[in-house]
C-alpha cells in the first residue's frame, strides 16, 4: 500500500489498530476490535488533522460516521502535527 503521490496519506486498519501512513511514517493507534474496515473518507482537514470517515463494524449492517482527531495522537508520539500534516492534501483508504 503506497501513496499515489507525496501529498497523499493512507488510512487502513487491521485487528484493533488503525494506521495513518504518510511519507514513510506509519502512525498506529488502537481502535475497536469490532471495526471491520473504513469505507470512505468524507472530510479531511490538514490544518486540524481531523478526519470524518465512514466505518463498517461487525455488529452493524450499515457503515457509521466516525471521527478521528490526529493532533493529540501525533503530539503523544512527539511528532509535530503541523510538520507531519503540512503536505497531506488527500487521504485514501487502502487495504493490503
Please provide a written account of the structure:
The chain is mainly beta. The chain has one domain. 12% of the residues lie in helices and 50% in strands. The protein contains two helices and seven strands; from the N terminus they run E-E-E-E-E-E-H-H-E. It has helices spanning 70-76, 81-85; strands at 8-14, 17-22, 25-30, 35-45, 50-57, 64-69, 90-93. The strands form two sheets. The chain has a four-stranded mixed β-sheet, with no helix packed on it. The protein has a three-stranded antiparallel β-sheet with strand order 4-5-6. The mean pLDDT is 91.
Which SSEs are present, and which pair or pack?
Layout: E1 8-14, E2 17-22, E3 25-30, E4 35-45, E5 50-57, E6 64-69, H1 70-76, H2 81-85, E7 90-93
Parallel strand pairs: 1-7
Antiparallel strand pairs: 1-2, 2-3, 4-5, 5-6
Please give the share of residues in helix.
10-25%
Strand/helix succession: EEEEEEHHE
The beta-strand count equals: 7
Q: Which radius of gyration do the C-alpha atoms yield?
A: 13 Å
| SS-derived structural category | mainly beta
Biggest sheet descriptor: 4 strands, mixed
* Number of separate helices: 2
